[in-house]
Amino acid sequence: MSASRTDQLRAIRDEIVGLVQSPLYQYRTQNGYFPVIGQGDHYANIMFIGEAPGKNEAETGLPFCGASGRVLDELLASINLDRQQVYVTNIVKDRPPNNRDPQKAEIELYAPFLERQIDIIQPNVIATLGRFSMEFVLRRFGSARANQRISQLHGTVIDVSTSYGKASVVPLYHPAAALYNASQRSTLEHDFQALIPFISDDKPSTMKLL
Ligand code: URA
Questions:
Q1: 93 near 133, Cβ under 8 Å?
Q2: What pTM was estimated for this model as a whole?
Q3: Are strands 165-172 and 158-162 parallel, antiparallel or unpaired?
């Protein structure tokens, strides 16, 4: 029998915990931080992918649990969703110092873990949060739109082929963009509506930190 989704995600967690070759490993251990693997329903239709954990996330091991996370929760609530119904993760699983952008080498090192998470959860929709995850995901699936900017693609539904069949990518701005900018917030609220057709409650919901 093949390993359960939870067991497969546990294996990913264990590998990342021991990822001594990561340039972010020492920073994690010296600060008593946790890697942030992901959280939510392992059978979710919708998977959100952010960039990298911030300080709050590294201190708790929970994705999007700080100020950006509050915005994400409000945006989910605006389409009658909560975290238990979706799966939330990042490309880079360890906090970059001073919240700087993830570097190319870091994205490349952590990407195989994200790819495995996508293959395990098999979401119908991958909602990318911010330009780094949009670029990574569109390139990964060989989308012809991979070279377009987030200002052109946000809120659109892009069909891609995955190892488990057809799926859609919905590029979204990062929720942090809405923290100090009211017009970005209304753009995000508008763009979240693109997810409504994909909401389904016919799968078991098992909220898990992993
Ligand atoms: N920003 C991200 O991209 N991810 C998090 O988990 C938190 C903030």
A1: no
A2: 0.95
A3: antiparallel
CATH of the domain at 86: 3.40.470.10
Read off the pLDDT of residues 13-51 as tens digits, 9 standing for 90 and up.
999 999 999 999 999 999 999 999 999 999 999 999 999
Residue 17 in any domain: the answer is: yes
Please report the atom of ligand 1 found closest to the CA of residue 88: 6
Estimate to the nearest angstrom the gap between the alpha carbon of 33 and the chain centroid. 19
**Per-residue pLDDT tens over the stretch 170-183:** 999 999 999 989 99
Beta carbons within 8 Å of 119's beta carbon, 6+ residues apart:
162, 163, 164
Q: Rounded to the nearest whole angstrom, what is the distance from the C-alpha of residue 56 to the centroid of ligand 1?
A: 9
Pairing mode of beta strands 158-162, 207-209: unpaired
Q: How many domains does the chain have?
A: 1
